[in-house]
Amino acid sequence: MIPITDTIVLDPREIEESFIRAGGPGGQNVNKVSSAVQLRFDLRHSPSLPDDLRARAERLAGRRLTKEGVLVITAARFRAQERNRDDALARLVELLRRAAQPPTPRRPTKPSAGAKKRRLADKARRGVLKKLRGAASATE
């Protein structure tokens, strides 16, 4: 079991890994070895995740989420396949941990009486300044 929070754990059987060839430097080794990891996790249908966490995780996943609700994480940072596997899993756990933190509720606030007074005084001053810019009157 993969711990996400104190109460939420993931079953490793829900995670699907496939190995692909990684690009970048490495000479002929790049063309022979599939060291990059593509981790797939069915976020939308996972029985391990509560609904509120699932919704926040879908928002955080962005373009990494397919239309079917599968989260795809590709890790090709390292040359060793094992390190890329650990990296992909760590990124999945990090995303789910961030989604597990509920957003802090917004407290509605009102401007103070002094702030309202200052704003209105500034508006009046600005209005006088703009009035002075007008064309000269014909009575002069």
Account of the 3D structure:
40% of the residues lie in helices and 16% in strands. The chain has 140 residues and is α+β, with helices and mostly antiparallel strands. The protein has a single domain, classed as Double Stranded RNA Binding Domain, CATH 3.30.160. A 3-stranded antiparallel beta sheet has the order 3-4-5, with helices on one face. α2 packs across α3. It is elongated, with a radius of gyration of 28 Å. The N and C termini lie far apart (89 Å). The mean pLDDT is 84.
- Looking at the chains present, what oligomeric state does this protein adopt? single chain
* Whole-number total of structural domains: 1
Radius of gyration: 28 Å
Number of helices: 4
Strand order of the largest sheet: 3-4-5
CATH fold field value: Double Stranded RNA Binding Domain
CATH class wording: Alpha Beta
Q: What is the helix content?
A: 40-55%
Q: Hey, roughly how much beta strand do the residues contain?
A: 15-25%
- How many β strands by DSSP? 5
Give the overall average pLDDT: 84
Top keywords for this entry?
two-stranded antiparallel sheet; 140 residues; alpha+beta; Double Stranded RNA Binding Domain
